[in-house]
Amino acid sequence: MTVRFAEKELKELIQEASQGEKYPLAKLISELEKPDSFEFRKVLFKELENSGFNGNRSVTIGFTGTPGAGKSSLLGEISTNFLQTVPDKKMAVVAIDPSSHISGGSLLGDRTRLSLPVREKRIFFRSQPSQLELGGLNPYTYHVIRLLRCFFDFIFVETVGIGQNEIEVSKLADISFLVMVPLGGDQIQFMKSGIMEVPDAFILNKCDEENLARASYHTLSTTLEFLRDIVPGGSIPPIFLTSVKTKKGIQELLDFILKSKPHTKRSTETKVQIEKWIKTEYGNFGLKALSQTHFDPNGSFEEVETSAKTEIEKRYK
Ligand SMILES: Nc1nc2c(ncn2[C@@H]2O[C@H](COP(=O)(O)OP(=O)(O)O)[C@@H](O)[C@H]2O)c(=O)[nH]1
Ligand SMILES: [Mg+2]
């Protein structure tokens, strides 16, 4: 095992991170993002649990949509309103952006001119370049989110794409939004991809003018009604009309997010993520071994991971 931090140092980093110190938190995240972080991860999450940080009350919010729809800009506005109107709570943004560089200084993408007080401890930004899938979640995203949940009340995850990425994010998110622009090709794309049930809500951004807003609301709600009729039992998710330019709809969107509740069943999430990891690492062979692995359904990801690895290694012999 590579000893990355002495126990005392790890404890200190956790304490500092929990108080909103950015550097210690960034350090912990960087360690988690290393390809061979398993041992560190095990120690870290055990230590977090022992120190009373479990992240059970944190809410994860997914923002997906085509590049340029305005996800980063919206998150910038949300952050600003959050700091002004929600005292005592903390939020983090994880932007998974194929164009971003992990060591770069850009917080929410270079195009967004977001100025937040640097010393503000209630807010944290992190960019992760996506690796495997274009614009999709990278293999460490889940663990980074688990860590952030221990310290922040709300975690926003921005990912590019429509379709598969949407589904990946919605598995991690307590609530997921699809961000679209009026009169874009997104709606047709969306209908084709047939993922009606995935987003919990829609955001039509760039509704800078009233007429445009009305027309696009009409188009989207008609599309959704049409889809509801072909998807039995479907209901129409809420649609938010926003404009970063005029600030329309931002506070309404934030108020809606603030009312969201975390999933009660994190154990289901652990299972989904373990399956994803096993499938990538060992293929169907691994999944089969996993189905015969006994583990505590409420155990941590690392506990389940260890049992699964043991089982798989036994079979490889
Ligand atoms: N007119 C207008 N432009 C916007 C709005 N929201 C974002 N933009 C612009 O759209 C471009 C892409 O925004 P960005 O937030 O980077 O999109 P992302 O790729 O979805 O994160 C930027 O130039 C923004 O300034 C809006 O509500 N109205
Ligand atoms: Mg962006």
From TrEMBL:
Q: Pfam families, per this entry? A: MeaB (PF03308)
Q: Which organism is it from?
A: Leptospira dzoumogneensis
Instruction: Note whether DNA-binding occurs among the keywords.
Output: no
Name the CDD domains on file: MMAA-like
Q: Name one GO molecular function term.
A: hydrolase activity
Supply the name of the protein.
Answer: Protein kinase
Q: Does the keyword ATP-binding apply?
A: no
For this UniProt record, the keywords arranged alphabetically read as follows:
Chaperone, GTP-binding, Hydrolase, Kinase, Nucleotide-binding, Transferase
Highest taxon, organism lineage: Bacteria
